[in-house]
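Entry:
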Amino acid sequence: MKDSKPVVGVDIAKRVFQLHWIDMESGEIVSLQLKREKFLEHFANRAPCWIGMEACGGAQHWARELMAMGHRVKLMPAKAVRPFVGGNKSDAHDARAIWTAVQQPNVKAVAVKTEEQQAILALHRMRQQLVKFRTAQINGLRGLLAEYGEVMPQGKAGVGKGIAEALRRLSDRLPAMVIDTLREQWERIGKLDEQIGEIERRLKVWQKEDRACQRIVDIPGVGLLTATAVVATMGNAKAFRSGREFAAWLGLVPRQTGTGGRIRLLGISKRGDTYLRTLLIHGARSVLTHAKEPEPWITELRRRRPLNVAVVALANKMARTIWALLAHERTYQKGFVSRPA
């Protein structure tokens, strides 16, 4: 750490919290277990200190509460803490590993989000669950119809075109209660569409009110979902030193392996937020597929490399552009050429 504040490692759970620190005056190693009701009371009576925690369920809430008391909190990915766990896994060992990891200079912190940012991410998660459930319901319906020789195309649009005619043909062969149940399942899929649309409407309202979203929504390939998810996930853009670091945090840069001074580049590392990386890649794919006049560099890259490589390269550039606009508080300009300061 850069200052002389005491460091406390905290392993959080639902009801029991494990703390680990070393007393700076006596050098005593302290391992303390607290109940949930006593956790904030303990830190309310302590002088400001550094607190390390894993970025797991509930960590964002506790980080905000502790920072409001004057403490400094560092949230870390579980992968960064795991190498420091010695011996068998236990709450005490985990707290000690967190205490060790929080003092390492190369461990990248997870941004502490505001309640508003977490609320937007909650909408994204609920929408994602509804989309998965809708897909499962559609595939289940297609499978049931295929048992009676009615093969439906993939996707909701394909099923929607042929479902009515398929049920009409089957009504002469199957009991009415089966046909009615299949119709009810199709109606439930329609209700899921309405719920997904309502969530997207609420996200659109927030996008229009948020300045950061307005700065990046004009980037080709960045739509409603990507803009709101990026702003809510990133937190403070200046926490990243550059756009490349942000792209690396998303896993959009090559994974490296090497020995003896020889380094070989592999596929993308796929680190970071899978959902956000997926949105950026889908946005880049739509630009390459539907853009009337794509940028010259991506056209040239498309001639030399496979489609998926060009898609990831464009997603990487989109991520770096997003960081630049948010970090420097600028608006998107088509054809802008960056120059060294």
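The chain is about 55% helix and 10% strand.
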